[in-house]
Write a structure and sequence with these properties.
Layout lengths: L2 H16 L1 H8 L11 H10 L6 H9 L3 H13 L25 H12 L7 H10 L5 H25 L6 E4 L3 E8 L3 E8 L5 E6 L4 E4 L1 E3 L3 E3 L12 E2 L2 E2 H4 L14 E2 L5 H10 L3 H13 L3 E8 L9 E3 L3 E5 L11 E8 L5 H21 L5 E4 L10 E2 L6 H10 L5 H17 L3 H20 L14 H20 L3 H13 L2 H13 L4 H7 L7 H9 L8 H27 L14 E2 L12 E2 L19
Parallel strand pairs: 10-18
Antiparallel strand pairs: 1-2, 2-3, 3-4, 4-5, 6-7, 8-9, 11-14, 11-15, 12-13, 13-14, 16-17
Helix pairs in contact: 1-2, 1-5, 1-8, 2-5, 3-8, 4-8, 5-6, 6-7, 7-8, 10-11, 14-15, 14-21, 15-18, 15-20, 15-21, 16-17
């Protein structure tokens, strides 16, 4: 019989399943007590010094101790996810006597064996039977079994206490209680302090000769006196300070997982606070993660066909970490997933923007060095990226038939199909910069074909002669000279060259005027400044590298104007295909859309109020979650 293996298995399962009751078990939470020395420490020292020569006396002495059976009973309660019980062996009798009597060791053992059933701690019932109950076992053998059991039980017990020196200090619970673990380097775990959201606390400490018990009610389960319940808030608070400001070490998800955040309170107030701090969905998502989990990290996922030789965790600098996810069953995709996190030194929005840039920078460099694309995504955002699919009705098929009939069959069709291809590339891309450029090129490519006389589309565009072209250039240069030369001559030269001499913009204007008219809102959006930039200005800045995805302000500029660019591009192409005047309405379909969301996808279910909503969900990261 491998007693070491049985006891280790008991402790492991108890720790995995016990939660807060495992802490109560290790501390043996009771009321106020005083003693010369800690009973567990005394038993452990005595059993190590015990006399093997007189097995009968030694067995009689140590087999009558309730403490080992008490510990095993509550470890089994943890294994079975039951409450810690501070007095499982008291004899309840009437009339009630104080102090209450304990039942016999045999009865205590029977209770523990009964509790061990269905615990799946292999060998424990047999060990207890042979050690305490079986009359067939020779006394000397029973003594050595008992001695081995107690040594293993208490040796592991004190190791467990000491292991909590390296354990996180604060732990959150669904009722907005924060449990602070009290530790020292000599013993390890010696107590706890429970913090409630009304700034009240409860304390239990087990010292060398006494216990402290304040606002703790040790009954069949541990309860707390929390004070005025009307003052309780839906927020984790420690010593008057929100826990999200203090921060928890580590991260919310286990390595390789991406699950919804379990937050037991209402999130409306959190959402309002977040929206006041930033209008960027990514920053909002990070703040939501911090406020609801109290972890000061950014969790993200990298998807790339680069197989890095990582056995454990790859650390880049002091704050950036990657863990390679094992492939899932029946996964034939060549790309790999890396579960990443970045430790934060601040939770201010400006710092979070820089942190996002740092993630992007590192992922870009990995892709560049190993010559493969490397994409990444945040685990938690405040918007849903998933688009609704178009539900085409039978009557809408008529529109497609008419579209095919009217679509040019001349050489003009080539330029239209090229434009539609650019438009579709814009729709497919998840990069807002690429989408913007593709939408613009969809218009620009047609404008060039028209102004160069390669396509007509029945617009009857008359190509301007050289003299008129020179006159337009001079007028353009003179206007920019008055505007910029005296204050910024370098800008004057740059703007003159790109807007007047080498001017795709001029050609665009001519065609847009024909299709929409000079007073149309689309003309103004394309060529007149809105908040300092027209759509054509943004296109120029993108093309010449003056806007970067690394800059959150630049990303915001492009994202906000992207819907305008999409609408103009679609209408521009449609008007050419249908040969419409500026006052004509573009034919359209019924515009019925359906959004299908799976609650088992963490992108759609960012948070839940209780774990029981998804009790058996496998939250290992899926590749489709990163698309």
């Amino acid at each position: 019989m491998n007693i070491h293996k049985i006891i280790n298995n008991l402790y492991k399962k108890a720790k995995d399943n016990g939660g807060i009751d495992y802490i109560f078990t290790l501390l043996r939470v009771t009321g106020i007590q005083s003693y010369k020395t800690d009973p567990f420490g005394e038993i452990y020292e005595n059993i190590k010094k015990s006399n093997d020569k007189n097995a009968i006396l030694s067995y009689d002495k140590f087999s009558e101790l309730s403490e080992p059976l008490f510990l095993i009973f509550n470890l089994l309660n943890c294994v079975k996810k039951k409450d810690y019980n501070c007095s499982p062996f008291l004899k309840i009798s009437m009339p009630f006597t104080f102090p209450p009597e304990k039942i016999s060791i045999k009865d205590q053992t029977d209770i523990v064996i009964k509790n061990a059933r269905n615990s799946k701690v292999t060998g424990l019932i047999k060990l207890l039977n042979e050690t305490y109950l079986s009359p067939q076992i020779e006394i000397r053998k029973k003594w050595f079994l008992l001695k081995s059991l107690l040594v293993e039980l208490f040796e592991r017990y004190f190791k467990e206490l000491l292991s909590y020196v390296e354990f996180p200090k604060y732990h959150t619970y669904p009722n907005f209680m924060v449990l602070e673990l009290l530790t020292n380097n000599k013993i390890g775990l010696y107590g706890f302090k429970a913090h409630f959201s009304n700034n009240r606390t409860a304390v239990f400490k087990r010292d060398s000769n006494s216990t402290t018990c304040l606002n703790v009610a040790p009954r069949e389960k541990i309860e707390f006196f929390v004070g005025n319940i009307n003052e309780l808030k839906q927020e984790w608070i420690v010593n008057g300070k929100p826990l999200w400001k203090i921060g928890l070490p580590g991260r919310y998800n286990k390595l390789g997982e991406w699950k919804p955040i379990v937050y037991p309170g209402k999130i409306q107030e959190i959402e309002n606070r977040i929206k006041q701090q930033s209008d960027d969905y990514n920053i909002q998502g990070i703040l939501f993660y911090i406020y609801t989990t109290c972890y000061h990290v950014i969790e993200f996922v990298v998807k790339t066909p680069i197989d890095l030789p990582i056995k454990n965790v790859l650390k880049i600098g002091n704050l950036f970490f990657l863990w390679k996810c094992p492939p899932l069953e029946n996964d034939h995709d060549q790309s790999l997933l890396y579960d990443g996190w970045l430790v934060l030194n601040s939770i201010e929005p400006e710092y979070l923007e820089a942190a996002l840039e740092y993630i992007n920078l590192n992922v870009n460099r990995i892709g560049f060095i190993y010559d493969k694309p490397a994409n990444w995504c945040l685990k938690y955002k405040m918007n849903i990226d998933k688009s609704a699919y178009s539900k085409v009705l039978k009557k809408d098929l008529k529109l497609f038939g008419e579209f095919l009939e009217i679509f040019p069959t001349s050489e003009d069709s080539f330029y239209l199909d090229c434009s539609i291809d650019w438009y579709n590339h814009a729709k497919i891309s998840k990069n807002p910069f690429i989408s913007f450029i593709c939408y613009y090129i969809a218009i620009e490519s047609l404008a060039i074909a028209i102004t160069e006389g390669k396509a007509n589309f029945k617009l009857n565009y008359i190509k301007i002669d050289k003299s008129t072209e020179n006159s337009i250039k001079s007028e353009c240069i003179n206007k920019l000279f008055k505007q910029y030369y005296s204050t910024d001559p370098e800008r004057f030269i740059r703007e003159s060259y790109f807007n007047c001499v080498l001017s795709l913009k001029t050609r665009m204007k001519e065609v847009v005027k024909i299709l929409f008219g000079k007073e149309h809102i689309f003309f103004e959006l394309l060529f007149k400044n809105k908040n300092g930039r027209s759509l054509s200005d943004i296109r120029s800045d993108l093309a010449h590298g003056r806007l970067s995805m690394l800059d959150p302000k630049h990303r915001s500029i492009v994202r906000k104007r992207l819907p305008e660019m999409s609408e103009i591009s679609k209408e521009f192409i449609s008007r050419i295909i249908y040969n419409l005047d500026s006052s004509d309405k573009v034919p359209t379909w019924s515009q019925r859309h359906i959004l299908s969301l799976s609650t088992s996808d963490p992108r759609n279910t960012a948070y839940i109020t209780h774990e029981s909503i998804f009790p058996n969900k496998d939250w290992r990261i899926r590749k489709e979650w990163c698309d």
